[in-house]
Queue: 4 jobs
Job 1
Amino acid sequence: MKAHENAQCIEILPIVLLGIRTAVKEDIKASCVELVYGITLQLPNDINETSIIPPCDNIFVDRLRNTTRELNPVATCAHDLTELWSVDAIGIRDPVEIKSRQVADEEAVEFFRKTIKRNQDKRYEVYLPWKSEYPELESNKELVTKRLMSATKTLIRSGHLSEYVEVLNKWIREGIIEVVDEDKNKGYYLPHHPATTSHHLENVPDVRKETARQLQKSFYVDNCITSLETREEVAKFISEDKELMSAAKFDLRGWITSDKNVEETQKRYIPILGLSWNSENDELSCNSAIKISEENITKRTLLSIAQRIYDPIRFTSPTTLIPKIILQKTWEKINWDDVLPPDICNEFLAWYKHVNLLKDCKIPRRLIANPFKDCQISLHCFSDASKVFYAACISLRAKYNGKISIQLAANKPRLSPIKEITISRLELLRALIIILPDDRWT
């Protein structure tokens, strides 16, 4: 069964119920529709509050909704699309969503502060923040298994696998975790995740405060990525942060820099947050190696390709925006698994044949070649709008010893809505991107 084609009913996911009960409470925003095969109940696809539904219906609706989402390709694609558009989102979210997340975050931080302590080995311990009220969880064994395989590969590359296994074996001996019966598919599994270092870095001697602040803003998961002005600062930073982190049994090693005089390991190409960093030339590049069959291209293929090129700093957006524009053209006219019309297919293939050239697009890691403190810095913003998309970019202008250099610092593109609106309104939207706070650009 597919979603209703009426634009006003796109958010409704039909669910078939067999039985004699046809009355529906109005406060759950549902409706009964009589079709040729019987009565159907239509529920909002994003219904979250099930406490207003009678208990017997509550359990049924929850389970049926989850099962339908797993089987329904439209719902699956909707999730993928949410992930796709969130990369280009300009930071506008529902106030209720923002508030609820803030409250949950504040409660988690407060719980962390109350329960954290250090054991005899100077390692940090903190209780798991269990929720007092929670819905019945479906089995996540398949998802956690994939994460385990990915984590294992990372541990093998970093040389920490044996240490990691020893920690798990110790927890088994101490009764903290237990081996799961392979025959039991039901249950919720806790995936492994790295420990945070923020608390440790907030409690360091004053003489190490500057290094601690630099570390605190430079960590992403288990990688430390930072930039310093001089060779002396780099050497001092490496020495002090090793001392700081070893005090809490965190081992930072495998340092790689663009300065060969302080480099500890010889490695030219390093993956950083989905990009490739050439430490020799100090340049970033994207992985654009995409292989697809050029026959029977569908809307689902378009969505897959549009998500495959990862560029968090959006330097390649003039290229990566094209498949999104083509995907938008297919929005209301073509089903997910229908072969694309020749004109749209040819437009996509023309883009696909040249997309691998992105690997030759080199992005300078440094915005300016000279120290910031010695330059006169100014930001220059530009934005524009058209019927197809609107965008904004920010460039950094630096003046040093009479010489001027300009480097693109960030850009943010956004597709225009399918429903045609005036250029004047689009001009307001492109102006909105420019005035958004700094954190909305990252």
Job 2
Amino acid sequence: MSNAQPTKAEELQLTFESIASLDVDVTYLNQDEEYLYAACSDLKIRAWTKEDWEEEVVLGETNSAPLAVHVDEEQVYATCENRVYVWKKSGWGMTGWFELAYDAVTSALRGDYLYVGAKEGRLVSIRKDSHETSSWQLYKSDVTSLWADKNLVCISTAKDDARAYQMKEGEAPVELAVLELKDKGAVLTGNEELIFSAVKTGSIKLWDRIDWTEVGKLESKNDNTIISMWANSLFLVTASDSSFISIWDLQSMSRLGRIKVEDARVRRVLVDRDLLIIATDRGISVIRLMVGETSLDLSSIENSRLGATILKTSPYDVLEDAIELQKEAEAHIEEKEYHEAVSDYENALQLLIDNTHALLEVPDERERMTTDLNERLGRALLKAKIVELEHLTEEVSDVSNELDKKGRLEREDEYVEKLWNRVGRAVKESRVLSDAQEGHILSYQLTYTADELESALESAKSKLEAYREKVGEIHSLIEGIDNEWRWIERRRTRLSDRLDFLNNQIEILQKKREEIGDEEEIESLVTTAIMKYEEIKDQISRIIESSESSQVDVLSSEKEARDAIAGILNLVPKKKESIKQMTNEEERKKAISRLEDAIREAESIAEDFEMKGELEDISKIREEIESLSRSKKSQD
């Protein structure tokens, strides 16, 4: 973020003091006297105390990314695509949620109602206490901006003019005015007297809330498309997609000054007295606006029309101020603060441009200084971009070294993807800049640095891809074992077979772990799987051992074993006759199978107690049973 010189002679040179930086991906901001609230892309609502900017609470998660967050005296509301979530501010407990019949795009909370701008041009009105819902299709295209105050709602869409509606309980919206705009998709805000509508050209129209006539227009050629606005009765604050934030004095209908957010894209801006709260794609920045050594409180009427007293008419004042900015830039360069130097050079050039009328008397000096500043600016831009690429190279190398040393990646995938994107943008910008400044030696250094960064990026990407392939291979191996294990269990296989399977798979995993080496995360995955399977294996082993030992315990003496074997030997002739009489083939097979099992068990017991005579008798009986089974098959 940089402090910007006035772009018009009557503007102030605004500076700022950084208060807090909150690292979170924000889609929407809101506030009350005590807290700052943010709707975050990770399906959470976060709140920070304004006293020390420490995180107070994390609410959620929601079923989709929240589009907006609102607060009243008692509750917090989060609007998502098809739901609105509600939490109590006392204790932060969730009250619940209610479903939306139409896909939301944006919303506004005023008085007793939550208004939701939805797709296909629908306005949804929800009473806070009863959740009673009404909806009307006011347009054919999706709502893009919605602002509400008391019984007034202003709406714009992608393909229609912005309009103002009067809202009355139990009645359909009544159109009050069409805010005629050449460009569609206006951004809207307002105060007690005016509605502000900003369009792609950067111009902002002011509409009187009584007779709905256009009463003014604020123009900014440098701000491009306005994406967010905040207003009270004294000031209007606008944020553009070119990352400029402008402060407008509504008493004098002029711009007081502006600042630029560096290396980030602004998403939303809020004001709290002398603080600007700025949501960007890098997080939230809280800064204090300053004019000289004094903070600029945008809620104070004393600060209105501050810029009216600094109109420059003397060419010497203009040139001297430009020289001062040039000196500040050179001081920044000595401190290797190249981005700040770029800002100072740009501001000096802008000062010359905006005060052309005052420099008509000194055209040669104006031309000489403009040429000199442009040359210095080119060098500063090249150096700033080189430093940026060097820092990015360090970040990419850190990722690469982390993979080399630890065999794993501690950083979140989201961080890595954002880093890759930042590198891609920076390299592309560097190519354009080096081409534009081709006559300068630093342009060749920039090209070389960009080449080195691209090489480091490709190396890191290759290592990361190899790392992810290894992790994926291990996941596939473990998943395959899990699937086969579940299949074995569903087949109701014997425990001994399951034990053999586990032993084989554990051996495979142990060999894989030996091959891995020092790659911690992959080794951890394999070790965790081995521990899981060993635990199951130990359980099965204990069950099998218990079963075998319990069999010996039942027949603990040779006498008991002889009695048991004698029992089956005496009963076999009777069982044979019974089987011969069976006419049901299935019952016959089951009976033969059970008798064979009993004979095998008797044989095992006889072997344990070394009963040779009994073993001979059992062998004869087995032959008889087998002949019984064969005779039946021959009859068939």
Job 3
Amino acid sequence: MRSNGQPVYNFCVTVDDATMRISHVIRAEEHLPNTLRQALIYKALGFAMPLFAHVSLILAPDKSKLSKRHGATSVGQYKEMGYLPQAMVNYLALLGWGDGTENEFFTIDDLVEKFTINRVNKSGAVFDATKLKWMNGQHLRSLPSDLLIKDFEDRWRSTGILLESESGFAKEAAELLKEGIDLITDADAALCKLLSYPLHDTLSSDEAKSVVEDKLSEVASGLIAAYDSGELGQALAEGHDGWKKWVKSFGKTHKRKVSVIEGDCGLILLPTEGLFLGCFNGLAKPLEHLN
């Protein structure tokens, strides 16, 4: 006890843990000096002793102790930056622990099932912001569509990008943008770029002239009809293979060249890539043009 009658830390934490029936205390190695003192208090008060484990600190890239000067430090800050809770838990779990395989993607349930204290590393783990962002992208793209759309809607409404009546648009935009971003906040700029896409200027350019004059309206009408009938939506729902098959069939019907592009889209029709992406050279990458 202090001279003013206030209890000291080691006494408080021991009584607190004992009355809550804490069975395992896992904490940073900085607490090693406190462990002996607390063990003596447990013994003196007749409390059952928990099992103690001490893990290495999380280090900054320069191998110093992680602190405020290295960036965001609170959960709230990371949430505002666009990080998902499950991605943060996944990444933090891998700082000094692994399941013995090369797998790095874990759900909360996976971690509960696989975690064992004996696989925790003794050396300090370096916090890598780039790796955390990549991890967040993996979790973002694995979200069920309804949860992903809600996250986008909540974000866009809070920033004023989206109105209450535009939830249907959010669904379409979320599916389009998710493959090229790692953070929820990354979608803001991409969406604004998409909404302000200068279609008229694109079609009026010298690059587009030959494409526009080559019966572009017939192709556009065909795409609209396929969308209205549900044919296009069905092809997209079948994934990459279904989309690939539909694009080839549509291109053959309208006597149009099929352009192969990198990424999940895989194939797109010339000249529709000019309409969608503002590029007529057959080498477009969708999100590069949106971003």
Job 4
Amino acid sequence: MDIQSYIVQGTDYLLDLPVKVQSGDLFAIMVALIIIYCIVVLLKKFTRLVAPGAKKIFIFLIIVIAAYIFFQSFLLRILTEGLTLDNIIFGFGGLICGILAVAIALHGAVKSYRKGKEEKLQQAAPETAPQAPASYPPPYPSPGEFNGNVTNGYSQQTRSAETQQSVIPFLNLTKDNSVGMVIIYLIIAEFGIFSSKTIAAVSSEMGFYFFIIFMAAGFIFIKLTYHDYLKGLRHFAVVTLLGFILSIILGHFWGGVPLDTLLSMDYFGSDALVALITGIALSLFMSSKG
């Protein structure tokens, strides 16, 4: 097929997208949410029409759908095939990543929404608040008070620090631009693609050209949305490398794609390329600050 046929096929799919969404096609719903997300990002970039946290909420919905698609496929495999080695290793691995991804996405959506509300309240508050009258410094504490209060304060600070250290692994994953978060979203996105009915490129050559265009667009996206461009490039490199390796592993063991296809130019005409591009896009979208 030539480029014109490829464009016609893509246009027909987009025109049929509302019908597919209404019929409950989960992959179509995920594509629609990604399109809406891109519109939300553009509106937020150039206007103030987007509600606080809307970007992260759309990403949360996309993650939930991708995880749900995988969970459906995993349950069906368990019922039909039983606990095979592939189902145990990849199935339960994907299950853990899916739960983590949903939890992190929910945390990010709630955090972003609250932050947006606080910023709105600060903007609505008067710039100069009336100052309270100057007060005299408090008297020095007595030795008894010093020993009791300071000791209690120190112990409270110690307990607070210990509590914070116990949740640091999860908090590190929920930070924007966290490599761990990027990788988790990459994994669950690829699991979701291999667990659903996707539309691969019409030919390996067209898939390769599309991949090159996508990579070029990725550099532009990082430039526009990441505050630290070099960090964005590092994430892009890590996600691309790991995503490629995962697309081969999951494509063969979970998607049933022959290794001969995945290790040749036919890779660019398979579902593995769709999984790679979707995983990269979703992980970069979620970790960016655009």
